[in-house]
Write a structure and sequence with these properties.
- The chain is an alpha/beta fold.
- The protein folds into 3 domains: 127 residues, no CATH class; 40 residues, no CATH class; 172 residues, Rossmann fold, CATH 3.40.50.410.
- It is 48% helix and 13% strand.
- β4, α9 and β5 form a beta-alpha-beta unit.
- The radius of gyration is 25 Å and the shape is flat.
- The chain starts with 6 loop residues before the first helix and ends with a helix.
Length: 376
């Protein structure tokens, strides 16, 4: 372990705090750069190897209001894979298990002080950063459990569209009537120009998720991302694709992600079955998309492109979808692999009608997907 004050330890602390701030922002806490710098300075005056010092230095600098505390505690626990201390005692052992003790499997519940050295928080944080970039299909059960906690903190911003309603603004078109009324109150003199601009409203998001056998290693992560979308934006519609089409929007609206996935799993009759993308996409467009669900929406189609049906039918339905939707984003977890080429029949047929082709193999890839959706 690096000596206190060494360049390596300072670099590790900065990287740790930066990664933690990123997690906080995903959970809804506005951890601005100046607050992050304040936390780094605070840790420099405290014991960086003491988890309670790290907890309170971050809570006092990164939280702007009382509403941020609950989100901060959840993000702290998820980031360091343990339980965040809620209070600091001036003497003796804290009542709650320290974060690092839980993450390394050290049992301090009995209050026995064995004299072990506190763990290096930078090591725990770097492990979380590595997990963000790991391929979800290759994770161990313990890593998947940790990833589920991180997915619970993901809050994607919905895409916005211009509405017909207008609102006062400092920039925009001149509101003639309001400008004249103000001038009348000032003796006929125009002191300032009243302006207005179009309001922004959330755009509908539609998630079409392939839950066939070839996508089974990534199905849980895709469903959790869809749940995060539904939680952040009430106008999200979620469907699963396999040998048939299943709407699971209602199940996805359950607040708890585990309950939402359990309810969705019970509603999906063809989980880990085959794939007939063309036929199922046609069923979606005939019943839902053409009637308005996909019209002007951002459509996310997550699949590896393995098509057992007619690829010409898939190309035809993708063309229909592209004409209806505002933007079509195809998520393929295999795209994140080195040397991947979209050579399957399904991908070859669909790609000409896709606006964005992104990977979905890791948490970092889903974070990029969230940005892609927000910017659509």
């Amino acid at each position: 372990m690096s000596a206190p004050g060494s360049p390596r330890l300072v670099r590790d602390v900065v990287e740790t705090v930066t990664g933690f701030a990123r997690t906080l922002r995903h959970s809804g806490v506005h951890a601005s750069p100046d607050r992050v710098q304040a936390m780094v300075r605070a840790i420099g005056e405290l014991d960086v190897l003491d988890p309670s010092h790290v907890y309170w230095s971050g809570r006092l600098t990164l939280c702007a209001s009382h509403d941020d505390v609950a989100r901060y505690d959840a993000a702290f626990a998820a980031f360091f894979a343990g339980e965040a201390p809620r209070q600091v005692r001036t003497s003796g052992q804290p009542r709650q298990r320290l974060l690092a003790s839980a993450s390394l499997g050290i049992d301090n519940a009995d209050g026995d002080d064995s004299g072990e050295q506190p763990p290096d928080l930078a090591v725990a944080a770097s492990g979380e950063e590595i997990l963000r970039h790991r391929d979800i299909g290759q994770l161990t059960p313990a890593e998947r459990e940790q990833l589920q906690r991180l997915f619970a903190l993901l809050i994607p911003n919905p895409p916005l569209r211009r509405s017909r309603r207008r609102t006062p603004a400092s920039r925009g078109t001149v509101h003639v009537a309001r400008t004249v009324r103000r001038a009348l109150h000032n003796g006929g003199e125009i002191v300032s120009m009243s302006r207005r601009t179009a309001r922004k409203r959330p755009r509908r998001v539609v998630a079409l998720l392939d839950v066939s056998g070839s996508m089974s290693p990534y199905a849980d992560a895709l469903m959790r991302f869809a749940h995060a979308l539904t939680r952040a934006h009430a106008g999200t519609e979620v469907f699963t694709l396999g040998t048939r089409l299943t709407r699971v929007t209602r199940e996805m609206r359950l607040r708890d992600p585990d309950k939402a996935l359990t309810a969705s799993g019970a509603a999906i009759p063809d989980w880990s079955g085959g794939t007939r993308l063309g036929e199922v996409l046609k069923a979606f467009l005939d019943r839902w998309g053409q009637r308005g669900v996909a019209r002007g929406a951002v459509v996310i189609l997550a699949s590896d492109g393995w098509e057992r049906g007619d690829p010409d039918l898939l190309a035809e339905q993708m063309s229909r979808l592209h004409r209806l939707a505002h933007r079509v984003i195809w998520v393929n977890p295999h795209k994140g692999r080195t040397g991947y080429e979209p050579l399957t029949r399904g991908m070859t047929a669909a790609l000409p009608y896709v606006d964005s082709f992104v990977s979905g193999h890791s948490l970092a890839a889903f974070e990029e997907l969230a940005k892609e959706i927000a910017d659509a």
